[in-house]
Amino acid sequence: xxxxxxxxxxxxxxxxxxxxxxxxxxxxxxxxxxxxxxxxxxxxxxxxxxxxxxxxxxxxxxxxxxxxxxxxxxxxxxxxxxxxxxxxxxxxxxxxxxxxxxxxxxxxxxxxxxxxxxxxxxxxxxxxxxxxxxxxxxxxxxxxxxxxxxxxxxxxxxxxxxxxxxxxxxxxxxxxxxxxxxxxxxxxxxxxxxxxxxxxxxxxxxxxxxxxxxxxxxxxxxxxxxxxxxxxxxxxxxxxxxxxxxxxxxxxxxxxxxxxxxxxxxxxxxxxxxxxxxxxxxxxxxxxxxxxxxxxxxxxxxxxxxxxxxxxxxxxxxxxxxxxxxxxxxxxxxxxxxxxxxxxxxxxxxxxxxxxxxxxxxxxxxxxxxxxxxxxxxxxxxxxxxxxxxxxxxxxxxxxxxxxxxxxxxxxxxxxxxxxxxxxxxxxxxxxxxxxxxxxxxxxxxxx
Amino acid sequence: xxxxxxxxxxxxxxxxxxxxxxxxxxxxxxxxxxxxxxxxxxxxxxxxxxxxxxxxxxxxxxxxxxxxxxxxxxxxxxxxxxxxxxxxxxxxxxxxxxxxxxxxxxxxxxxxxxxxxxxxxxxxxxxxx
Amino acid sequence: xxxxxxxxxxxxxxxxxxxxxxxxxxxxxxxxxxxxxxxxxxxxxxxxxxxxxxxxxxxxxxxxxxxxxxxxxxxxxxxxxxxxxxxxxxxxxxxxxxxxxxxxxxxxxxxxxxxxxxxxxxxxxxxxxxxxxxxxxxxxxxxxxxxxxxxxxxxxxxxxxxxxxxxxxxxxxxxxxxxxxxxxxxxxxxxxxxxxxxxxxxxxxxxxxxxxxxxxxxxxxxxxxxxxxxxxxxxxxxxxxxxxxxxxxxxxxxxxxxxxxxxxxxxxxxxxxxxxxxxxxxxxxxxxxxxxxxxxxxxxxxxxxxxxxxxxxxxxxxxxxxxxxxxxxxxxxxxxxxxxxxxxxxxxxxxxxxxxxxxxxxxxxxxxxxxxxxxxxxxxxxxxxxxxxxxxxxxxxxxxxxxxxxxxxxxxxxxxxxxxxxxxxxxxxxxxxxxxxxxxxxxxxxxxxxxxxxxxxxxxxxxxxxxxxxxxxxxxxxxxxxxxxxxxxxxxxxxxxxxxxxxxxxxxxxxxxxxxxxxxxxxxxxxxxxxxxxxxxxxx
Lengths: 448, 129, 540
Prior knowledge:
The complex is a heterotrimer. By secondary structure, chain A is α/β, with parallel strands linked by helices. Chain A has helices at residues 8-18, 47-59, 80-86, 89-92, 104-121, 133-148, 161-171, 191-199, 221-230, 315-318, 331-369, 391-400, 433-447; strands at residues 66-67, 125-130, 152-156, 177-181, 204-211, 234-239, 257-261, 277-281, 293-298, 304-309, 383-387, 403-404, 407-408, 422-426. Chain A is built from 13 helices and 14 strands. Chain A has a seven-stranded mixed beta sheet with strand order 2-8-7-6-5-3-4, with helices on both faces. A three-stranded antiparallel beta sheet of chain A has the order 11-14-13. In chain A, strands 1-12 form a two-stranded parallel ribbon. Chain A is globular. Chain A starts with 7 loop residues before the first helix and ends with a helix. Helices cover 19% and strands 34% of the residues of chain B. Chain B has helices at residues 31-37, 84-87, 91-94, 119-127, and strands spanning 10-11, 16-21, 24-29, 40-44, 51-52, 57-63, 67-71, 76-81, 103-107. A six-stranded antiparallel beta sheet of chain B has the order 1-2-3-9-8-5. Chain B has a three-stranded antiparallel beta sheet with strand order 4-6-7, with no helix packed on it. Chain C is α/β, with parallel strands linked by helices. Chain C is 38% helix and 9% strand. Chain C has 19 helices and twelve strands. In chain C, strands 1-7-6-5-4-2-3 form a seven-stranded mixed beta sheet, with helices on both faces. A three-stranded antiparallel beta sheet of chain C has the order 10-12-11. A two-stranded antiparallel ribbon of chain C has the order 8-9. In chain C, helix 6 (152-169) packs parallel to helix 13 (375-411) and helix 13 (375-411) packs across helix 16. At the A-B interface, loops of A face strand 4 of B.
């Protein structure tokens, strides 16, 4: 066993202390009929050979493509300092800070994360406990249900499909309903349809829109929030944190809850995770937000210190009456985000957002010239849809030419003929002129 | 340990007390319960006008380490709520029978209070653990 | 300044006495508290341990990590869509940031720094090759929506991991999607719900849990729309079979059992329990939090459980990360496989790997998250399983159980052991007799352990044992460490009898003393602005 410290003598000494001659005795409480006899798995592998195996597997992934794929996960520059900080064993080999006296590092980090995300979202209460953007969105839907005592949640069809699907799964246990709102031809959510849905049928608990939405366009969030509140429902903004360096904040447009994916803040794509669910809310809903919260306090000698607080809402105390079963705090991912924001700074974060916007505009021009014009007309930040005939086939042929041409939206909206000809593409501050040129050239060839 | 159990109040086995004032009753939790819970940090109470059903949960009390449901000693309608507990939940620890009161209720059947525990019976209960 | 430095004599005397107790509590500690040398974080000096990022910020510092975009980059964004003020993020240069986090890290106790016997959490060593592997650019930079053809390396690894976890669990199929143990529980309970509904069995609205269960079990049941029914434990620590039989019925959807239990005991009546569950038409869920005790010794699927989750951050050494991220794959037997969250990872006849398409699993409960799993965590668990192989995993459990039983025997010299042995990978002890004799409670013992250089065990859980300590040594702690920890617990029991004031004062060597948790909860201050107010440096 590669990491075990026990010598033959150590084991013999422990067995002797227990008055037994074999470790098998300690497993005799497992009834013989269910006792297993080992595992049919490959043999142990020394670290040298294992490292070669892992390098071979990693090399089979193609990560050097010209990448224009976003759809909720974004390629950003990650300053080297981030990995240095999260690689410290004092952080990554600690656990939930149940003993605050010896966990002030983790606790202050989470407190700083809460503070930074409060600045970004404009909402004062932030929880670092959520797995990813989808799970945070589902928890936000449940918060609106608890806060209003109502069962009906409305979500724009231009919210990330996985977030909608996940929310539907989370809501399937209760008597809750999730209904989708249609979109306008310009790519925004149909607020007329929202107004009708709010005034007809069962009272609505919550309304959820993305900003930017799943087509990359900017929604009229303030108006959507106003309509929602007029019906006594809660408004949830599904946000991308880098965009909050420049876009109006959920706090400004009156959202009750902000949810989203924290991956763009210094976390690698990693084929799906681990990520960081962003969840923030107002003071009023503080007892509805699930997950760990860290508060500032004093020790008995009057020193400033931090501690997990409002613990009585949580599963280990409230059991079946807890707000959620969440037990995680996504501390290491929150540490990455905190370090990223500290290193990149306010001007740097604005540059990241604006750099993506600038690259996206270059991309839009280049693709239009190559025969793929933009599909929608509403403003966008750094992600948008283009119209390409038979988009799935084109996407495949571009891959053969070394270009990852975003997402063929037919994957997400198989029943929508309008979107069968759509590619969702994005650019960020790392997108180069050469990559854009490669994409446009290859597209021209494929469409020719 | 001796804890205060005022003679003039009525009690439930779940450690709520009730002071009858005509057709109305004032409700709180006992000093014993407050001590057991430890430092109380939050009390969630129903609004004025809400109905209470006897023995049903009407709210939640949280301390640093635990949370408990609050159970109605009688049925009735809430006519007043101790708003001071919102900002100062510690009143339940420091003065459970006076400043730490929770609800004032118009009772459906004031005579039903007779069925609640008296001070001796409640003392016997907490002595028995 | 008219404040006087004179204070009442009584207050001065009390302070002097407190200082004297701290001095004696320090003096009473052995010189060399552990085999590894003095452990634990540095102590505080002054009014705080560490400034916040906001307090360190100075306008004009830092920046220049990326090129500046053209001035007109945001011209396409209407002013009505822009934020009114830039976010008040701190402005710092890189050396300050690094020093800030390095200093914060010194305030943490960690497995890399010392013994962390937190029961139910399996705080074993986190191998460094795991970290290296997860950071290989081929794994780290792969986009979750990348086409299958571009993702063959990760897909192959994940497919193999599915197969390996199926073998370990004795189950037929595994989903790697759930992001944590509690997330796995939710997935598993939704699978059970879908199974009953698919059979037209619509009246099953209850989930039964033992009173020793993790809080996540009842919380999960509620989240999935079920009512929780709690059954008591028998005097031997196992589930009370008669109470379980009485609770089971046509309304029971599932029984959630942790095996070995949270008391560190194997359910000896497992046959009878599972038969009773299945006879009632319910399904058996196994909380796999304690798999570290029984790898290759007990395969839940083969024994009759229908579904279970793993905690990869416990059994398979992925780091706990200060509370997360974890991963909670779910394994099921055949009858639940149609309902698994889509997509699964499949191997085609030509040997290539791909994500399943939605139409291939029409009865799926749907997604439980975005994308297909926390691959960064899964790479680490795969690496761990490969490093050990089947034989190594069996040794892991044997050594974990041997260490726990040895430590149990040593701790039993001064603390009561409420259940008969042998235990599995962890055990409960109680400080109840100590409390009755000296007034010293489990919380005090835990805080004093910090002074002796150890992270305390899990305390006050499971709820059914008064003044409970739940101790889990894991297989990666040496005999010397186990003995030193036991000696510390014994020394504390001795202090409790002779100088309890030293224990009440603990911890005295940690960065901070005990905290005012009541004020933190009554008036929550959850971010730095209200604290520093106007002097918070805001970037222009």
